[in-house]
Amino acid sequence: MPENMRELDNCFRASEEPITVAEAIARFSEVLGGIGQSEKVPVRDALGRILARELTAQHDIPPHDNSAVDGYAVYFDDLIDGADTSLPVTGRIAAGHPLERPAKRGEAVQIFTGAPVPEGEGDDGPDTIFMVEDVKVEGDDVVLPAGIKQHANRRKRGEDVETGDVILTPGHKLRPQDVSMAASLGYAEIDVCRRLRVAVFSTGDEIQDVGAPLKAGCIYDANRYSIISMLERLGCEVTDVGIFPDVPGDIRAGLWQAADDHDLLITSGGVSKGEEDHIKAIVEDLGALNFWNLAIKPGRPIALGHIEREGVQVPFVGLPGNPVAVMVTFLRIARPLILLLSGARDLEPNLFQVPAGFDFKKKPGRREWLRARLEQDSAGKPVALKYEADGSGIISSMVESDGLIELPEECEGIRKGDLVDFLPFSEVM
């Protein structure tokens, strides 16, 4: 763990007055960093991992001048101005098979896409390439039409990347195109941040795991599975600790054990002041726990703290109990925290403006998220439609929606046709 983990208590200090999402993210961004550990992985396994060290170009791309087309390479100065030019074809160059001699003036060399442009005798060699579709072959000669520009269809060495160029910087999440670039530069292995180890658990005698008939008075544990799924989407190494009954000794032992070999502990619900809500007292005894009063809807209360074991402070996040509130607060509050700990640079997802297809009144002073789906209007343009049922326990509202409409604190409402910020689930899940 990095040194700044020792400042978790200050970072997660309680907030009596409601604070904004931006303030919340700023608080832990000031003091938290990545876990500071990296590993080498084969380039084929690097997709989705977070880059730990700068990726620089070890050679030029392309590594040599090459042809962009199938055709004929010539010296531009050999062409007749304003008329066709006939030149003898004296060689053939395929990709991976360079011409084994310098190209001479007054000749044309057949060349294929990606093949290296040959060197010349005491100069730069052929500098212009005709497409095969534009020429006529007459015996051993090729007839080249007038009008081509010098350097046409010739790709220069290093025009994409030059040796020493910084291609990617630490904290970047590797995409397929990034993996392609690394492979083109000859990287067999890439230094990436170690996967964040996260323990997820639930508590409560009323919580029942799936796989058996539901007992009277119980509910299936949906939150644990949604949290695990969202963590795995972020590339975390997740341990499903399971469900603890309302037995303080069992909860304490489970938390203490999980803190020994994990970077983050997450639960949902069970951290209030009720007689059967034991987590609060246990976390406070093992470290510290504070409640954040966030100016948001849904999911206002979030518990943040840590468990201290052998001088290491392991962050603890207690999410709300309602399923929708769990997912929303995870995506907009816990997710940036997790990305920070994972070593990522970009914490905020992209929001896209789309017109609203409904009217809505909002209480100012808090950030609010509305579940919505996208449909096309009569002109074929996207429009956001609010899901009718907006209770924080209605999981079907998340299933039927394409994303969240995010309304800022100062907003007092929207009218049909107003542009709103839309967060697609595809950006964060």
What does this structure look like?
With 429 residues, the chain is of the alpha/beta class. It has 4 domains: 3-37 and 194-342, MoaB/Mog-like domain (Molybdenum Cofactor Biosythetic Enzyme, Chain A), CATH 3.40.980.10; 55-61 and 160-192, no CATH class; 66-155, Molybdopterin biosynthesis moeA protein, domain 3 (Beta Complex), CATH 2.170.190.11; 352-428, Beta-clip. It is built from 9 helices and 29 strands. The longest helix has 20 residues, at 323-342. It is elongated, with a radius of gyration of 31 Å. 36% of the residues are buried. Mean pLDDT is 92; it is low at 1-6.
Highlighted features:
429 residues; alpha/beta; Molybdenum Cofactor Biosythetic Enzyme, Chain A; Molybdopterin biosynthesis moeA protein, domain 3; 4 domains; seven-stranded mixed beta sheet; elongated
Task: Provide a brief overview of the structure.
By secondary structure, this protein is an alpha/beta fold.
Task: Give the SSE layout.
Elements: H1 8-11, E1 15-19, H2 21-31, E2 38-42, E3 55-56, E4 66-67, E5 71-74, E6 85-93, E7 108-111, E8 128-131, E9 136-138, E10 141-144, E11 154-155, E12 166-168, H3 176-184, E13 189-193, E14 197-203, E15 207-208, E16 219-220, H4 222-233, E17 237-244, H5 248-260, E18 264-268, H6 279-286, E19 287-294, E20 296-297, E21 301-309, E22 312-319, H7 323-342, E23 352-355, E24 360-361, E25 367-376, E26 382-386, H8 395-399, E27 403-407, E28 413-414, E29 419-424, H9 425-428
